[in-house]
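Entry type: protein chain
Record version: 2
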Amino acid sequence: MGQLLGVLMVFLVDILPKLFMHAAYKIAITLAFIAIFVAAIYAYVNGFSTIVSSLSATVPDIAAGVWGWVMPDNTTTCFFYLISATLIRFGTVLFIKILNFKFSAAISN
């Protein structure tokens, strides 16, 4: 019983903190990349919104009225969600491809 307790103590004192720090490091890097992607998407959508609003000065009033009939008020938000979902899907597919590559490399050895 004392040996089992010793092994458990070694795990709790030595191995568990190393695993936690490794996981915390990976989570911090992942959150940083997500923040960078969200900031890039936000900047892109704001640029798109600025371009669209600058075009409204050259568009006749009747065309602007038709734009209001066709496009909802939350067009910028919808566009933001569409682009961010596309980037998240791309990242997920890329991550799965990397995992498959690592898995096939681990099996072949």
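Comment: The mean pLDDT is 77.
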